[in-house]
Amino acid sequence: MADRQTGVSAREQPPDVGELTPPDRTLMGPGPSDVHPRVLRAMSTPLVGHLDPSFVEIMDEVQELLRYTFRTDNRWTIPVSGTGSAAMESAIGNLVEPGDTALVPTNGYFGGRMASMAERAGGDVVTVDAPWGEPLDPVDVERAFDEHQPDVFGFVHAETSTGVLQPDVPELTGIAHDHDAYVIADSVTSLGGVEFRVDEWDIDAAYSGPQKCLSCPPGASPLTLSDRAMDKVLDRETDPRSWYLDLSLLEGYWGDDRSYHHTAPITNVYALREALRLVAEEGIEERWDRHRRVAEDLKTGVRELGLEMNAPDAYWLPSLNAVRVPEGVDDSAVIDHLLAEYDLEIASGLGDLAGDVWRIGCMGHSARPKNVEYLLAALEDALATQGFEG
Fold first, then answer.
1. Fewer beta carbons within 10 Å, N or C terminal of the chain?
2. Can you give the pTM of this predicted structure?
3. Which of 345, 323, 326, 341 is nearest to 388 (CA)?
4. What tens digit of pLDDT does each residue of 190-240 get?
5. CATH number for the domain formed by residue range(s) 26-32+284-385
């Protein structure tokens, strides 16, 4: 539409957009987490081509660092070009073939996303049930396998919607492999923050997101597959429905040949490399210990405010703390108060827990004592404005 006074189309006038000045938040929600200054500096370094010999060397380094962080020797360990959901869809969309039976959990929001992706891949989805806020029981998993004989079993190691850490992982994978099924693990909120061992726990495929415990901007997302899983991918009778996420094609770019498939997000790969270097410098087991130690202080402080955790201590998830919203308190008002008065981000519940919990992250560079102290003081003030006395 032309401007009534000048007769000039609005599209012919350059938009008046000022300099980028996002607020300086303290990120204590379910992700992203605070990014380490070294990672931000890595993103400001010069671009090279995605097949430049120097970038190929960087690709090799990222793969080695990912193997260390995943605790695996898997050759097929790469960063998928996209967010964590792209790595998730790559794992599920390649391992689930049309007609396969996929067993997925119902105990959180991201089990539901697994189901949706498996259905879109042409799989027949069946479920193993557990209440939101509880882990899967191996007895129920065994029963579901006996009933449905699934080809693929997916589970969420660290359920971001409920604050629950799945115990008994080797027992679950053992059940699956006794039934000749493939295991896909969601490690989006656990990789680099809580104990997670791909090889020792006999996991066939695992995916994650970089913006949680790795404290890296989203854009290049970790994925690892065992030789057994990759053999299934390469022996498929039909192509995966996504060309972009077809691992048999991505293998040509991230494998030995380094042939063109797509233009990788070079700056994001730089960032992931530096984030993973920080993991290696700290030591993966020391990093797990730090997350637990700092999150224990958070949990203690939350209880001293008169609040309750959603998950019992037996399967509490240190990297994502789901805190029950007390009766009479408006969860959204508390979130808004923290953001407006303290530049501090936490998040509300998802799915069945919407309005019932706050989700407080303690991940990566955000998992520091000073952040926990700041959060607890700010939360106490926000609760006081609601008239809550713990």
1. N
2. 0.95
3. 326
4. 999 999 999 999 999 999 999 999 999 999 999 999 999 999 999 999 999
5. 3.90.1150.10
